[in-house]
Amino acid sequence: EPTVRTELMEQIPPIAIFLQESRPKFPTAFFEYLMPIVVRYLTDVNNQVRKAGQEALLILLEQDLVAQSDIENKVCPILLDLSAPDSDDEYKVEAVNIICKMASMLSRTTVEHMLLPRFCELCSDGKLFQVRKICAANFGDICNAVGQEATERLLIPKFFELCSDSVWGMRKACAECFMAVSYTTSPEVRRSKLSPLFISLISDTCRWVRQAAFQSLGPFISTFANPSSAGLYIREDGTLSIRPSAQDVNSNSCQPSNNITLSSSANAA
């Protein structure tokens, strides 16, 4: 029964945490028994079971309970199979979504060598606009996961493609994550390539794209500032923040202007 398998998946994370805390007594139980179930359920025929399996996997990765060898030898190959060009549409959409979500939880080497080539392929998927939209919406997170060199060499060309996609929702998603992409690049790329690209979005024929671009204008401009003098920095959750000055911290001030947070999709003032 699918409901039984779904319920089982919901119990996997707490069991895994218990086994981790009791590791001297159960040194290999998780890797031998539970991890294979999670991997198998990523391809279950039932949608709810697969969703529960994906959520369980993300929790396990978040808690750092999955060994690097299991990620590279068991999880990634399954996701690459599910996101292959000839894969079922529903499986492909789910696979690219989980790839994007787990990228920030894996090592840079694993993401760059195992997942980045497939992500670049999916950005150009001509069959499913849903796949391209997921890639566009999570583009900033992928850039942050692989760093400046891979972003400029492999991802920026794909970002240009998505910013000129025929579907306006794609261009809107790119405008919303523009600050996160810009933050990962060098000042030269920011100035010579991303600035003209941003102007094209702010002049887009679709008003929803233009609105999203205007909302990202302030955060995008902030990426040109020197962090040491401007006090701007990016939090772990991807939001742009202004660090309070030493004077404000010493006076223990609670004025709103002393701590401002701007996300890449937040409304620009």
UniProtKB/TrEMBL annotation:
Presence of keyword Repeat: yes
Region feature (Disordered): 247-269
Keywords: Repeat
HEAT repeat ranges per the UniProt record: 115-154
GO CC terms of this entry: cytoplasm
Signal among keywords: no
Gene Ontology MF term list: protein phosphatase regulator activity
Name of this chain's protein: PP4R1 phosphatase
Gene symbol of the encoding locus: Ppp4r1_2
